[in-house]
Amino acid sequence: MKKALGKGIKAFIPEEYGILKQETYAELEIDQIRPNPLQPRTKFNEASIDELARSIRESGVLQPIIVVSEEGRYKILIGERRWRAARKAGLKKVPVLIRNIPKEHQLEVALIENLQREELNPIEISLGYKRLIDELGYTQENVAEKVGKDRASVANHLRLLKLPLEIQDLLSDGKISMGHAKVLLGLDDPRALVALARKIMAKGLSVREVEALLARTEKEVPAPKKRKADPNLEAVQEDLLRVLGTKVTIDGTPKRGVIKVFYFSLDELNRVIELIKGARS
User: Fold this and answer.
1) Are 25 and 96 spatial neighbours (Cβ–Cβ below 8 Å)?
2) In terms of domains, do 190 and 265 share one?
């Protein structure tokens, strides 16, 4: 896999996409170029862009931005951060590589290449992996192979999306670390999770200190007795998981209870709703 990574995107994108044979260098007016709504980066650090803009004023854009032609303009596939910095630096034109990629493959290329090359935060990476799974039908193994990671790393990132949104925001902003997030995933109570995350920030707790704090808490508070699950309900739960393609839990007895269907993005919510509607029609 390390050898494959050295070859860049060519090691992962089939040649029938056309990007290896049809690539044109050009210098385009910066206003002809627009950002790509498909790319995984959702947050841009303004201080980092300012620093890059200063470098661009001195040395220019050293690495071309990769774009595709769309309706008389050009859409960024890779390099939005460079484009933003170039605008801030006052450049009128920027170097680009224009690739000819069919529209149906642009999401795949944008996600894979950005996940390999860009410095994304952990939540952006997690959402990128999830889009490959939800929108393109990848398995976790496929994702791991495409981005050059092991499957455990992909699974760990996807688990981050189970955290409350407040904690995901803290992780996105770098206010807690990936190590902190992995420890927090050991808690089931969302309120306890948020309270502990706030405590991490307020006291500047290290990952080891958080682990020690949780270990002490577990010793002091006896674990509640777990009710034995009904095997019939477990079977139904597994069936629903397979049909809906997302986490499902059933809490109750064969006579009455609650079914919880989890979703982790608006797209996934819409997909689940359509599946349920389809089953009723």
Assistant:
1) yes
2) no
